[in-house]
Amino acid sequence: MSSRKPRRQHSPTSPRRSEPSRRRQPTGAGPVVTPTILFEDDDLIVTVKPAGLATANVPRGQESLLTWLQNRKAGQKAGERAPGPPVFLGVVSRLDQPVSGVVVVAASRKAAASLSEQFRERTVQKTYHALIEGRFPGPVGGTATWTDLLERPPAGSGDVAEAARPQEAVVEATLLARGVEVSLVQLLPQTGRRHQLRAQLGSRKCPIVGDRLYGSRLPFPQGIALHSSGLALDHPSTGERLTFRADWPSTWRQAARGLVLPAAAASP
After folding, report:
1. pTM given for the model
2. What are the pLDDT digits (tens) for 109-155?
3. What structural domains does the chain harbor?
C-alpha cells in the first residue's frame, strides 16, 4: 500500500473533576495516566485521554477510553465486567491511540445525535498542538492554511482502510516557537480525516516527534507529541457554548529539548 502522502491543491453545569492516577501496564509499555474527567452531566462526558489508550474498538479484554468510561459509569473498577446491560455511551469523535487530549463522549442518544451533527456540520472547534522536528514552512507567528488530498493510511497504521478515493483535508497551522531540534505548532483542523494532521505535517518534512509512521526520527516517551488541547461545542440540551482545554502532558517538557513551552491555555 502506498504511503499516505497528501496531494496539495493550494497552498451551565459545573464540571466534576477527578485527579489522574497511574494504572499498571505491561513491562516496557511505560506508565499511562488514567483518563481525567473535565466535565460530566446527563448528556455528555468530556475527558482528557492519555496517549497509548485507544478511544474505542479494541479486542475483548483490552481497555479503551470507552470501556473505562462504561465501567466507571456502572460503578465498577476498570477491567471488571459490569453486571447487566452496558450503559449507553456514544463515541462521536476519536483520537488516534498515540494521541493525547480532550475527547467528548455522548451520555445519551439525544446528545449523540446532536454532537454528531455538530461534528458533521463542522461547528465544533478543535485545537491541537504538536511538537515537530524538521523545519516548519513559515516564520514564527506565521499562519498558513493547508489544503491537501489524503490517501489511505500507510501500511502498519493499524487502521481500517478508508475508501480508495482521496479526501480533502484542510488545516490552519501556526508556528508558535522554533527551537534547535523541535518546534511548537498550533493546528486548527477544518476537516476530520484519519491521520490528517500527522500526514499533512509529515508530507512537509516536519513530522510530529515520535511519529515514526510519518518520518519522525526523534523518540517520544509515550505515543506521539500530538495533543488535543482544546474543544468548543454547543451543549446538546441547553445550547450553551462550552469550551474545554487541557494542558500538554508532563512528557512534553522532556521532549521539548530545551524549547520553552507556554501553558496550552495561554496559546492563541
Report:
1. 0.81
2. 999 999 999 999 999 999 999 999 999 999 999 999 999 999 866 65
3. 12-263 (3.30.2350.10)
Cell of 186: 498550533
End-to-end CA gap in the chain:
38
CA atoms of 263 and 127, how far apart (whole Å): 14
* Contact status, residue 240 vs residue 155, Cβ threshold 8 Å: no
CA dihedral sign, ordered 125, 146, 98, 33: negative
Distance of CA 73 to the CA centre of its chain: 22
pLDDT at 20 over 60: no
Is the pLDDT confidence value at 188 over 90?
A: yes
Number of residues written out for the chain: 268
Residue with cell 511505560: 30
- Give the closest residue to 12 by CA, choosing from 235, 245, 246: 235
- Cα–Cα distance, 198 to 159 (Å, whole number): 14
DSSP string over 69-124: HHHHHTT--TTSPPSSSPPP-EE-----TT-EEEEEEESSHHHHHHHHHHHHTT-S
Helix, strand, coil percentages (3-state) for the chain, rounded to 5, are 15, 30, 55
Q: How far is CA 85 from the centre of its chain?
A: 29
- Provide the annotated active-site residues: 96
